[in-house]
Specification:
This protein is mainly alpha-helical. The protein has a domain of 126 residues. Helix content is 75%, strand content 0%. The chain contains nine helices and no strands. Helix 1 crosses helix 6 and helix 6 crosses helix 8.
Amino acid sequence: MTPTATTSTKRTLSTAEARREAVLEAGMAVFAERGFLGTPTTEVARAAGISQAYLFRLFPTKSDLVVAVVRRSNERIYEAFEAAAARAHAEGTDPFEAMANSYSVLLQDRTMLMTQVHQHAAAASMPEVAEASREWFAQLYALVERVTDMTEEEIHRFFATGMLLNVMAAIGVTDEHGDWAKVLRVC
């Protein structure tokens, strides 16, 4: 959560809010390494510089923490798309292309990439993660539909390409892997 600006002063985060932010940042990094299911909360607490007891005061269950990290990761993608589309509209360029480029940049962040990959894996066994993921896809779909002139088929292709790019990035595919890699990475 970013501090909100008022007309004359900036709001500062309370200690609990600041700790919550630290936990979310640490959680993204730690969960990106071993996944949501395979990472104990003690590792997240240690990375955030707090006790596990305090972590559970901020996030009463591991599930609450996982969902918060999933939402944070998804917010970053939404914000990147929204900013890219706004820039494109202001510059008179294609918002679709701008959003696609912004996603390519996000995929270069290994923590972001792996948080997304683990999110999809966790959704298969954690209904609360599946729900958060569905909510996010609905919001992202609405954004893409609102800021572009794309048809439903083009929006489908945009999302499908994004998921393919996630897989290609996660498994480390480069053009050197052959013609198949060049085709699938470019889509």
